[in-house]
Amino acid sequence: xxxxxxxxxxxxxxxxxxxxxxxxxxxxxxxxxxxxxxxxxxxxxxxxxxxxxxxxxxxxxxxxxxxxxxxxxxxxxxxxxxxxxxxxxxxxxxxxxxxxxxxxxxxxxxxxxxxxxxxxxxxxxxxxxxxxxxxxxxxxxxxxxxxxxxxxxxxxxxxxxxxxxxxxxxxxxxxxxxxxxxxxxxxxxxxxxxxxxxxxxxxxxxxxxxxxxxxxxxxxxxxxxxxxxxxxxxxxxxxxxxxxxxxxxxxxxxxxxxxxxxxxxxxxxxxxxxxxxxxxxxxxxxxxxxxxxxxxxxxxxxxxxxxxxxxxxxxxxxxxxxxxxxxxxxxxxxxxxxxxxxxxxxxxxxxxxxxxxxxxxxxxxxxxxxxxxxxxxxxxxxxxxxxxxxxxxxxxxxxxxxxxxxxxxxxxxxxxxxxxxxxxxxxxxxxxxxxxxxxxxxxxxxxxxxxxxxxxxxxxxxxxxxxxxxxxxxxxxxxxxxxxxxxxxxxxxxxxxxxxxxxxxxxxxxxxxxxxxxxxxxxxxxxxxxxxxxxxxxxxxxxxxxxxxxxxxxxxxxxxxxxxxxxxxxxxxxxxxxxxxxxx
Length: 584
What we know:
By secondary structure, the chain is an all-alpha fold. The chain has helices at residues 2-38, 44-67, 69-82, 86-122, 129-135, 138-154, 159-184, 188-198, 208-237, 239-248, 258-297, 316-360, 364-400, 408-433, 438-458, 467-491, 498-526, 531-555, 561-565, 570-579, and strands spanning 301-302, 311-312.
């Protein structure tokens, strides 16, 4: 019995490791291309503003059409596989493929045709429509690709998801940089001609940041096509093995028609998607409240922003430019904010099929243990990242955005929300696994209501302006976390002791933050001022503080023997710790 439990646990952590590696690579590459294009002359904060605005509208339709697909299909497939019904599991896959191919086409058309109306009348950001049109084709391919990913997740094979995501991001990173450089350097006229063809409208009157942002996002569409082709080949290579499992399966669930299966998939994927849909819609509303709030805040005068001179009695166009610039500054912190969450999402992704399978077999204790462990690891991963962002945001910005380091203090503020966002992410995976799929949607909806109200109040205050959006994000994430957590503990007996899960990690994180600041200030006072010296000082301070943090985590025994053994290569790690008498 213990051997079976150990195999299940290592399988769980093995899948977490696969997704973890993929997510780290995806986000690092994402940071690379955003760093490169942001520092290209002519892109800067304004280009980021257009890039982010168009992308946020895209994520609304993406959430509607595909975000819930992998987890919904993974849940349905894993439940059937747990009962040895591979035939039923494959029928879920084929039905979902037909359904979401149609949904993907519809969403692509809506985004392409409606881009002008959305950019001008909803977002109040003329120029963002070019980004939306460039992204429109990818919706179809993402939909179909998500079905394949969800099917293999349900089969506990995370390679399809991880490898396709890495491949997609490699091409996205490369093509984004190439396309943006071509618009301003090697072939500007040729790229403008292609813009007039691919985006239907002539680029006449369109400023360079809008063209650059559009081509940066067109790279995303090209990358999704490549990822889809890879997934298709991945499935076809395993088709024979899948057929063998179908032939030899002994279990059998309900004999539902394709129509009924599609309805079941929608009934499950829509609630799972709701949280992402609400979050995506909220980001669009967020941008709309930011642009309108900034225009009201600065109606009598625009202060100095990102090195630009202050303007008295600004025109409507100058106010709009200021709003786009500040939105771009905020989006830079979003990029860094999402990096630690990408690491954490590995647990949320694997929790859904894992807990679904455990619940289907009545193994509540297994579901509880995996949830408790995932929450602990989330805290230990995210807390040092959040504190690191708080204390080192300025030197980090000077490294990543040397041409436009403005807005680093926004990252310091938003890092508070990072911890609650990560915990919500993990708990959401557990809630979806036990079938409470509406709870994450309700929690984020309530949080978003708080955010919108605070945006409207705070951003209009000239002395607060864009910082109001960062403050409201903290409140939003705290509210969502509290609702999710209190619902979770009603259905799963999650054991979270105060000392192990809060006090000891906080002590470790605070000491680590103090060390990071101290080491950076010491090195900065010794070394001469410059990009390279700032880079060296930051890397050394992060490295030393990370060692201190992990030493404290081990020294305070936040993780016990069982926790360490659950890690990838946990047995080797534990033997090493006992050798140095850290554990006995």
